[in-house]
Amino acid sequence: MPRVFNFSPGPAALPEPVLRQAAEEMLDWHGTGMSVMEMSHRGKEYIGIFEETEGLLRELLAIPANYKVLFMQGGAIAENAIVPMNLIGRTGRADYLITGDWSRKSAKEAARYGQVSVAADSADPPGSGRCLGITPRSAWKLDAGAAYFHYCSNETIGGVQFHDIPDVGGVPLVADMSSDILSRPLDVSRFGLIYGGAQKNIGPSGLTLVIVREDMLGHALAHTPDAFNYRIQAEAGSMYNTPPTYAIYIAGLVFRWIKAQGGLAAMAERNQAKADLLYGFLDASRFFSNPIARNARSQMNVPFWLKDPAQDEAFLAGAKARGLVQLKGHRSVGGMRASIYNAMPLEGVQALVAYMKEFEAAQG
Ligand SMILES: *Cc1c(COP(=O)(O)O)cnc(C)c1O
User: How close is the Cα of 198 to the center of ligand 1, in Å?
Assistant: First the structure.
């Protein structure tokens, strides 16, 4: 079976050269006679892999020296608790902006650890839980005494993405970037903390990335587990407990691949071209549509609907027959969703659009 174009929202497609290299190195990494999976995380070889991986990430994102990079476990859903456990203690309060399912979940979990205030809920209509855009900045209710302001830079399910970093004054910004980190250049210095699970745009599941400004550390609630305490993990170089060693190695290969492609500026250009092609087609189509406000459309996850939902199954079956897979929309919103992360080549989106054109034409 040839490789398919995989539009999965996550775990998602990885660059083929990365998978090939991992396969080549599976049984014998660089003459050690063992797989990276079998190495001690404290051994010389693995430390080398680990340091190179962190170095590449710092280089790609131009992470300032006063930020720690932590390689953790538990995914973004665990971070929904770990973030407030570590940060909310400074003032006991935090602001959360809701723009979709993921940020809604984050706010709900955080409320168990402190006083959470919803800066705005973008649900449209109110109470529906469905967000088709982002509440304008002028309508946000902000607390100058919040320990931090949390938002999700890209709502993977809804397909709503920030095109800019929001300005909330002096309150530290905290962002869930699970599904758009490394998709474009980023000014890390604007943030107090950035986190994300790896399985969208970085590597295998099991690895969670945290980038935290040093002055944010040291406010953990007393009952914070040591393994989830940022300060303890920072002091231990992410090795207070055994980190997800193999996932970190794959992430390192992905970082190398991104660098070889020209870094984040090149990624942004490719991602823009893919998104322009797909949204351009959707907007011109009379059969397919995307309802998200233009200033908040996601470059990474593009939900779309068929005019006649009775055709959904036929559409998916025809796509699969053409090697275009995992296009079914999230169960909570239905329809379709094309996730087009860094590893999706332009050819994949071209093939999808060609198929959609053909499908629409057949509707007569
Ligand atoms: C996938 C995703 C999550 C959940 O990640 P887990 O690894 O399942 O914890 C949270 N937030 C965003 C934005 C996501 O895309």
Answer: 9
